[in-house]
Known about the structure:
This protein is an alpha/beta fold. The protein has helices spanning 19-22, 27-37, 51-59, 61-64, 81-88, 128-140; strands spanning 2-7, 42-47, 66-72, 94-98, 120-123. The radius of gyration is 14 Å and the shape is globular. The two termini are 13 Å apart. 1,3,4-trihydroxy-5-OXO-cyclohexanecarboxylic acid is lined by residues 10, 72, 74-75, 77, 98-100, 102, 109.
Amino acid sequence: MKVLVANGPNLNMTGTREPETYGSDTLAVINSQLKSRFPDVAFEFFQTNGEGDMIDKIHGVDKEGFVGVVLNAGALTHYSYSLRDAIASVRTPVVEVHMSNVFAREEFRRTSVISAVCKGTITGFGKLSYFAAVFALSENAGK
Length: 143
Ligand code: DQA
């Protein structure tokens, strides 16, 4: 079972960036904990600070055979209609994740332009948001 974990702009700074909001684990640590927790999942990890690179990655997911995508789109979540259209253009389910509770923060973070084309959204559980999304996808695989 293949799962893509895709992180957008600034998520490469996780661990040092606003640790009170995003925790002190780096993305590499979180990714390795995911592998340990879900040994039967074949993970691919992807991070980009570029909107176009993220769109290109999403375009390829159907032919790569992922059961799903765990997507933390960072701030692209709040304004990227082109990312939304990319998600809508593929059949592979995409789970929107956020470490922080975006509804408890600034007004602009309460809008997601991608939620409506995602399978579901998990927000506010810190790094466990990723774990919850992988769990949901793995339970759903093949159904
Ligand atoms: C985030 C929330 C976004 O609003 C923000 O731009 C991020 C991270 C989160 O994981 O909580 O970069 O997606």
